[in-house]
Structure formats: structure tokens, C-alpha cells
Amino acid sequence: MWSFTRRSAQPSPESETAKRAAEKSLQEARARAPEVEARLTESRRVKEQLRAHNRANAYSDWIEGIVLGRLRGDA
Fold first, then answer.
1. Residue 27's Cα: distance from chain center in Å?
2. Is the dihedral of CA 41, 45, 48, 54 positive or negative?
3. Start-to-end CA span in the chain (Å)
4. What is the mean pLDDT of residues 2-26?
5. Tell me, what's the pLDDT at 11?
6. Cα–Cα distance, 13 to 66 (Å, whole number)
7. 73 — phi, psi (to 5°)?
8. Could you give the 3-state DSSP secondary structure of residue 74?
9. Which end of the chain is more exposed for a tag (fewer CB within 10 A), N or C?
10. 48 touches 54 (CB < 8 A)
11. pTM confidence score
């Protein structure tokens, strides 16, 4: 005969603690989702502004080089 008794199906305290910690972490992450989304949107907007500024600055420098070159008689 089998001399060992069968354990009940109760989860261990460690697994319950880990499960509660994971649920809490998920709730906190969901609560921060709108803030994170807003920051991402702002970051993308700033990135596009910088890209446009750099493009305009490059054209400005190019035109300035042409004008100054003509004034010096390089062209």
C-alpha cells in the first residue's frame, strides 16, 4: 500500500504572495498607462519639432553659404 498521504490542493503561501504582488504590479502599471501614453505623445511631438527645426536650419545654412559665397565672389 501507499504509505504517503495525499496533500490537499491548497496553494503554498509563497505562491499566494507572488500572485498578489503580480496583481498589484499589474494594477499599478494599468494606472500609469495614461501618463505613459501622454509622455510618449509629447516625446513624439518634440522629436518632430526638432526634426523640422534642424531641416529648416540646414536650408538656412545652405542659403547663407550661397549668398556669402556670391558676395565674396566664389561663385
1. 19
2. negative
3. 104
4. 84
5. 80
6. 76
7. 85, 20
8. coil
9. N
10. no
11. 0.55
User: pLDDT tens digits, residue range 33-69?
Assistant: 999 999 999 999 999 999 999 999 999 988 888 888 8
**Spatial separation of the C-alpha atoms in residues 58 and 56, rounded to whole Å:** 5
Question: For residue 34, what are the CA distances in angstroms to 7, 11, 21, 40, 46?
Answer: 45, 35, 22, 10, 18
Please determine, for residue 7, whether its predicted confidence score (pLDDT) is greater than 60.
yes
Find how far residue 28's CA is from the centre of its chain: 17
Alpha helices in the chain (DSSP H): 13-72
Cα 1 from Cα 48, distance rounded (Å): 75
Residue 74: count other Cβ atoms within 10 Å of its Cβ.
9
**Which residues are within 8 A (CB) of 19 and not within 5 positions of it... i.e. 6 or more apart?**
11
* Alpha-carbon gap, residue 69 to 75, rounded angstroms: 6
